[in-house]
Amino acid sequence: SDVCSSDLGHIEKEFYAYPSHEWPAVPQFLRIRRCQDLYEEVEYVAKDILKRVREDGLRFGEVAILLRNME
């Protein structure tokens, strides 16, 4: 959809940009979450993916995880 494309387009344009620009609208197809550390982040993402696969019929191939740095 056009909304999904605009959400992804903003991420593609701003992911490595410095300074980055604020999101022009509330994203509808992406979620961003701040975590205390890498372990909390990985645990949250894994649980969320499994929940969506089990409850919403999402397929693993429909999931994308973007990250800047694993350190």
Instruction: Specify the number of helices.
Output: 2
Radius of gyration: 14 Å
H-E order? HH
Please bin the fraction of helical residues: 40-55%
Uncertain runs: none
Give the strand tally.
0
User: What is the strand content?
Assistant: under 5%
Q: What composes the largest sheet? A: none
By secondary-structure content and strand pairing, the structural class works out as: mainly alpha
Could you list some keywords that capture this structure?
71 residues; mainly alpha; 0% strand
What does this structure look like?
0% of the residues are buried. The chain is mainly α. It is 45% helix and 0% strand. The protein contains two helices and no strands.
In short:
This protein has 2 helices and no strands.
Which helices and strands occur, and which strands form pairs?
Blueprint: H1 2-14, H2 38-56
